[in-house]
Specification:
Elements: H1 9-12, E1 15-21, H2 25-28, E2 40-43, E3 49-55, H3 65-76, E4 82-87, H4 90-102, E5 110-114
Parallel strand pairs: 1-3, 1-4, 4-5
Antiparallel strand pairs: 2-3
Length: 115
């Protein structure tokens, strides 16, 4: 995505957040994040924030769309720390960390949290 000045929307964003969801976690309540079928949200106020939402159970390694997109975003936005939120329990957090490593996402460019 390119704006008029040649700078991508992601480069202009104040923050980038990836949410990886395990729909079976939390008594099947975590799926609320993916039920609408929305994979990307853009907020413009009060700050420009891009949010990407992916089901961690989709596809097989090394072709999981969310992790491939995360790697692409990390490589395209050299000076931004990308926040990764995991919607699930301890097992889902470890699964996400394994996928980040397996997909070759630069570990110095993201921070992981749990929701």
């Amino acid at each position: 995505e390119r704006g008029g000045g040649g700078e991508s929307d992601l480069e202009k964003a104040d923050g980038i957040i990836f949410i990886f969801v395990n729909p079976a976690s939390g008594g099947n309540r975590a799926g609320i994040f993916t039920q609408a079928g929305i994979e990307e949200l853009k907020f413009n106020t009060p700050k420009k924030i891009h949010v990407f939402i992916y089901d961690i159970t989709k596809e097989k390694r090394p072709n999981k769309p969310g992790f491939l997109r995360l790697k692409q975003v990390v490589e395209a936005t050299k000076d931004k720390l990308v926040r990764v939120l995991v919607a699930g329990g301890d097992g889902t957090v470890m699964w996400c960390l394994d996928e980040l490593e397996a997909h070759g996402v630069n570990e110095k460019r993201y921070a992981v949290g749990v929701i």
